[in-house]
Structure formats: C-alpha cells, structure tokens
Amino acid sequence: MDCRKSFAFSSSANLGSGFDILSVAHDAFFDEVEACISSDGIRVSVVGNEVMIPEDPLRNSAGFSVISLLKDYGIKDGVTLKIKKGVPAGLGLGSSGASAAAAVASVNSLFSLGLSKDSMVKYSMLGEGAVAGTPHPDNVAASIFGGFVAVLGERTVNLSLKYDDLKFILFIPSLASNDKTKKARELVPKIVETSSYVKNMKYGLSLVLGLERGDRDLIRHGLNDEIVEKARLPMFPYYPKLKEIALSGNAIGSCVSGAGPSIIVFADNETDVNLIETEGEKLMESMGYSVNIKQAKVGGGVRVE
Q1: Domain range holding 176?
Q2: CA dihedral in degrees (18, 23, 29, 34; nearest 10)?
Q3: What does the entry list as the binding residues for ATP (predicted)?
C-alpha cells in the first residue's frame, strides 16, 4: 500500500491584535497523519486523542481538506487517513489546524501534486471551516510554514525573527470544548470604534516590528488587543491576573492563544520563568482551574516523512 506520513506542530493564533492574521508554530505538541491510497473512498481514523475527534470526514478538518483537494484535482482514488493526535483538542493550540496541515502535506506528497505552501494553506483552511464554521487560515498557515507568520489574503509571509532566546510558557486549562472556537468567534464585535481600531493598528505594527528587530519593548507593547481579546474576556476570567503575574516575572508579554482557553506567555533569558509558573499555577487553582504548564520554542513547518 502506497502511503505518506507527515508531522505538523501546534500553534497559537490571534497574537496580540492580529486576529486571523498573526500566528506562530511551536514545538509544544504535534500531530501525525498517514495517508494511504485506498479503494474505500475517504476514510478517517483517529488514535491518541483525549477528546472525541469526528471520524466522519465531512466533520473532520483533515478529512474535509483532503476531500476538497482530491475533488479539485480530479483524483478518483480513495484515501485512508490515520490521525495520531498529539495536539490537545479544544484548547486554542491549533489542534484541527495541525491535523489538516499534516493531512494535506501527506496527500500532496502521495499524489506528487507539487502544491505550493500557499495552496496547502488554502486546502487546510477549508478543513478548519468544517470544524469551526469559518475557514480561518492562521493556525494552518503557522503549522505549514513554521515560525511566525502573517496571513495576507491568499498569501502567507514568514516574519523574520531576530530574537535568539525567545521561548514560550503555555498555561493550558482543562476546559476543552469541541465547539469553543465557534462560540468564541460569535463574540467578536461586528462594529468597532475608530479609536479602538487605531490602537489595534499600533499594537499589530509594534508586534511585527518587535519580532523582526528583536526589540523586547515593541513586542511587549504589541501583545495587546483592544477589540477581540477584550470581547472574549468573560470566557477567560483568570487571564487579566495571569497577565499581571507574567509581567511581574519580567515576561516579554502574553496573550490568549487562539480562541483560548490556553494562554501563551512570551519569555526570554531575562524572565523569571519559575516565578511565573509557580504563581500562575496557584492563581489558576485558586480559581478552580486545573492547569497544565508547558514550555515551548518556535516550531518549524510541516514535514513529510
């Protein structure tokens, strides 16, 4: 049986004010997807998951992406997808995006389609739409390209990173929900004040310039959001205090990871990581949340075995 296997890292999207635009891949977790030519249509099996992941290909990000890809390229062969979940689902860490990215990469290699990375993002994001109701590209773009990315319409651009000791602390509450992303997107305001828009433009530019220049203060300023994060705060009552703890430990900054509930803290060698982890865990537990704390570094793009 002809097969290909790919690996895609977890990711954090909506960095600062970069809703649906700015994201980063990190090596905290990864998904593995093996695609094999089959005579049984499109089939999906999932192993290693703690939260129920749909095996119906029309409701699975990997399956839906592959169906769309095969249809557009007129491929009549069936494909069996075996998804080994490493990225925890429903926690704002790009779980469905990692599965879709790895599946598209595997099928691209399996049929020698020669897809560009931007085309891989296009098909992977369709799978996100099957899960979240909206085909958002930021998580899949990070998992495919690796590093920090900016999604600009149909084009994704890697940001140059001049920050050698950058690392992340992920606070991951046990609050997984399969429809959490859809609910979080419903909270995004349809109309915003001009003053809030201007502030967010400043934040976004500050974050991009800070990453590309290795400027700690610019990154810290850029990890703020006047619109989306503020609208979603009722979903994460622990976040404002957790951010205070992070800054008291001299973190570069922090923001909600994707649609939450996970929080990503940007740190470097000047950061008191132990203080942030210890005090952060105490805070979460005092508010009734069980939390997993994981350190990570910037991750690479999807890899075909």
Answers
A1: 167-296
A2: 120
A3: 88-98
Instruction: Write the CATH number for 76.
Output: 3.30.230.10
Catalytic residue, from 32, 80, 156, 181: name it: 181
Q: Distance between alpha carbon 288 and the CA centroid of its chain, in Å? A: 26
Neighbour tally for 253: CB within 10 Å? 23
Tally of residues, the chain: 305
Q: What is the pLDDT of residues 45-66, one digit of tens each?
A: 776 555 567 778 888 899 999 9
- Tell me the helix, strand and coil percentages in the chain, rounded to 5: 40, 25, 35
Q: Is the same domain home to 13 and 113? A: yes
128 flagged as catalytic: yes
Residue 97 marked as a ligand binder: yes
Q: What is the tally of structural domains in the chain?
A: 2
Angle between helices 138-145 and 95-110 in degrees, nearest 10: 50
The reply to whether 132 sits in an annotated binding site is no
pTM: 0.93
Q: How far apart are CA 31 and CA 9, in angstroms?
A: 7
